[in-house]
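Note to self: keep these together.
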Amino acid sequence: MIKLNITSKAKSHCPISFAAEVIADHWSVLVLRDIVIHNRRSFNSILINNNENISSATLAKRLKRMCDLELLCTSDDPTHSQRKIYSLTSKGMDLVPIMVEMFRFGKKHTAPSPTATSSAATSPTATSIPENMKRPLSSYEENLFEDLRLTHLNHAENTI
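Structure:
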């Protein structure tokens, strides 16, 4: 069973190591994005509309893997006898905040699209995070980030 293989690969009982084994696959994250953000819930809908041109074999493997990991479940489509509808499980729903954080990171640290107009590309808000996606940091995060800034950023600035 895939679930056992994935969870047994972790060399430690570290929760981050376990999570990395589950979501570190590029295609799985993009398939989840298509299901969560774009509401593409059938195989063909994901395949046809995927911007990164995932192959049908890769998509089939990732959907099966995520079902085996109990991140997704399937139900029959009442409008089509051979079509399955993919839905998040509660375990899959727990990944949504991580995906939102990945969006924030990508939005903050990627260059504007080459198709953007030059005025939009040079605008300071071109890569800003939408206001409704901003969130306050917990006290743990604030303390961690402050320690990391002191430890890493000062060192990095001095070595560049």
